[in-house]
Amino acid sequence: MARLHITTKSGRVRVAAEPGAELAVNGGAVVQEPDGSWRVKGTGRSVDVRCPAGTDLVIGTASGSVDVRGTAGSVRVSCASGSIEIDHAREVDARTMSGSVRVGSCDGECRVVVASGKVRIGDAGRVAVAGVSGSIEADNVGGGELKSVSGTVEVGSSAAERLGVRTVSGKVKVSLPPTATPRFRLKSMSGRIRCDCPEGSGCDVDVATVSGSIEVRCR
After folding, report:
1. Please, are residues 149 and 133 in contact by the beta-carbon 8 Å criterion?
2. Is-contact 134 152, C-beta < 8 A?
3. Which run of H or E residues covers position 189?
4. For 65-160, where are the E strands, in sequence order?
5. DSSP state string for 3-43
6. Hey, CA dihedral for 9, 14, 20, 24, is it positive or negative?
7. What is the model's pTM?
8. Distance CA 2, CA 47 (A)
9. What is the pLDDT of residue 32?
10. Domain boundaries, the chain
């Protein structure tokens, strides 16, 4: 199955991407497009979909949570209000106005845009996260950019690529491998800066905040 589009005005969307599964839908009408993709339009208060592992997903809802379990391909989710949870995907693009976003594992790039809500990412090849209010946590990423207006940012990086963090108000914590020797650019207008990692000629770690502390440590 190349791609699956799921849309609903309101209500919860749940997707289970399982090895060897055939497409099964509860709470929606199914149409196959000429290009081989499938479209599911929600007709009830919730939509439950079972599909093969590795399926690319495009999900849109006005209000309601989105929960993707199993191993999916490229996942794009857009909702006005509601939480988003994704277990494992090849790529992620998740956007919500109000609601939390949780991504367990993303093989490639993980893009998240949130107006108000917490962001939590486990593993990702690269991240591009933008939040207005709410904390951002990323446990283990290769690199990327994280931006927040108000809220703490905590990120663990393998220091394989450039890592950039920008906040207006909120403290920043960065954890690096014990052998990391990156180039640092750390700047806070009013806040303490602490770094216990040796500087070298590795990748760039660039952190800036207007009001808030910065802590960089080698774990």
Report:
1. yes
2. no
3. strand 183-190
4. 66-81, 84-98, 101-116, 119-133, 136-141, 144-150, 153-157
5. EEEEEEEESEEEEEEETTPPPEEESEEEEE-TTS-EEEEE-
6. negative
7. 0.95
8. 20
9. 93
10. 1-83, 100-219
